[in-house]
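Sample pair:
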Amino acid sequence: MSTLERVFGFQQLRPGQERVVSAVLAGRSAAAIFPTGSGKSLCYQLPALHLPHLTLVVSPLLALMQDQLAFLHGRGISAASIDSAQSREDASAVMARARSGELKILMISVERLKNERFRNFISQVPISLLVIDEAHCISEWGHNFRPDYLKLPDYQRQFNIAQVLLLTATATPPVIADMQKKFAIAADDVVTTGFYRPNLNLLVEPVGGAVKQRRLEQWLGSKVGQPSIVYVTQQKTAEQVAVRLSQRDIAASAYHAGMAHEAREAIQRRFMAGQINCIVATIAFGMGIDKSDIRNVVHFDLPKSIENYSQEIGRAGRDGQPSDCLVLANRDSLNVLENFVYGDTPEQDGIRCVLDELLSSTAPGNNGNGEWELMLNALSEQSNIRQLPLKTLLVQLELRGIIAPRYAYFAEYRFKYLLEPEALLAKFEGERRQFVEALISTSPRARTWCTVDFDQLYQQHQAERSRVIKALDYFQEKGWVELESKQMTEVYTLLDPDFDPAALSAELHGYFSQQEASEIRRIHAMLALFASEQCLSQRLAAYFGDGNAPQQCGHCSVCRGHIAHLPAPPTLPPLAEQDLHSLCGGFVQKYQALKGSQPSAECLTRFLCGISVPLFTKLKARQLGGFAALEDYPYAQVRAWLIAQKG
């Protein structure tokens, strides 16, 4: 009996799966671009059992990892993850299993590869295959681009991993070309199985914001008992919609990232078990949800993009039975979507602040040695750039050859003795004993915890940092100490000290503005899809480069004769009627007191549109009158009005 049948219970692979698995088992890198629910995971799970060494899976979400691990454990496959929810002991146990060769599959987030302790470990373990889940994240033109994913081609070379397998459900032709090039995958080994799903009825209904809730209640009221997901943009909307549905005898639970982890887990388990049939969720819900009988996916608010829409409706009808995917479409929440985009564009002054910090930290006169050490949250506050765009900025500096990442480390290590120091020392002799003695004597104990003094250890005993961390890890593995680390510090080398900060900050601001425009276009492409006069299934497939979908599916709202003419948003009073001083006076005063200068038009726009940036936390801006006062207006319009006022 084959491994496929014995372990996974399948008689044969699907055509797309077969091509990918064959390529991987033949020793080639490959990419599987299959719609959600088409069995991408099997493309690495099956080969992993036949490959000689570890399969390392990079996944963007904890929920995805946990779901896949539960599946693998259920089939007796030796798989584990190292993630932020684990204790240090659990992580050490997983590493020990990987070192011994017992583990077949290890799942991690991409950020884990910056951790010096993990890098230390992974460089000692032979790896057969690197799997990148949600691989569209490696492309700057992917819909939820994660800057750290850009480093994965380098990591592949660093750790001598011969093969890569890329998995995604939502890659447009430019993103596929980008992925293929970055990992040198042959065109024949990029396998796309098409995006058209004949059992999904794509329905778009134009509904004004004021009557949207009532329409949702009517629609779900006729489908009581059917597993359904209702997607909304904001956490407060999830709570409000769930309460109102429950008041209409449609039992519904809210689900969003603001809820406690245990509460989210419990709701997800009950939904999977069929004890709850309706979830009202932000996009925090759904990744890794493999429930085959979801009959309805409703977008109460507009999705973020066509890619997000495709991914979210992909959770419906995985059992092949007919399922409805309804968008209650209007332009009311368009500004909210666009504001998310605008909030991620750093101001040019903020970019210049980062570049100045880089130059001053590495300057020889400041005891600089060409190395730049930074803590992301501190630099984010200093530059007033959100953490995700700040990571993108650092990656852009890497790609331009300005800086190169050296390593990341926890600035502070501390430990608690589980074995008295004398007993610990007695376990060693000779030079090792001297080293352990030095470690004990230079780590002062404050009540319970001892803090490691790396500088003193190096100056007095020439003990390298890496050796100290290895020793502490070993002590923890043996149960002699409990170890804690904090304050992640990233270290970069300055490769080009002669760059012009003024010119580079302008160039990088231009890059971010281009990304901003691209994201705004993506939102408008989605509106155009929903208002389409052509078959929706055909339009959606064409967006992803799939020319095999039928010209008319016969079961979308357009094919049924309903073209969605989206209602215009409610008319707002002209901005000229607003009094700038009464809206912003208190904020400007606090800003000047802190900074000694006037806020820029961009900064004021963010304040008035209710977009959070690090500086606003310090200023307690949310508590000031005027915060989010103009959130219903388009961001670009508010910005233009403020520039005119300042002029």
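Residues 575 and 641 are 7 Å apart (CA to CA).
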